[in-house]
Here is the input.
Amino acid sequence: MVLPRLRPRLRRVALGPNDDTPDYGTCECCGAQFGVDDYSVESSRSFRQQWLAEDAAWFYPNLKPADWQLETQLVQIPSRFR
Here is the structure.
């Protein structure tokens, strides 16, 4: 099962060209590899919990928008993935 994940800066789902498979890119925010770290609802939750426990540091801090807010990002997670 491929889970939809919004990339924080690009505001798009991280799917490949056929919109059915992950693009295996890396989230610039948390460092998750699409299709690897989010292969199930539980793996997504587990990865996010670990990232939050490690102070939610940006994987690529130089790409972090000046106005980015963690709370704003977290409320955008669909309820079944929380």
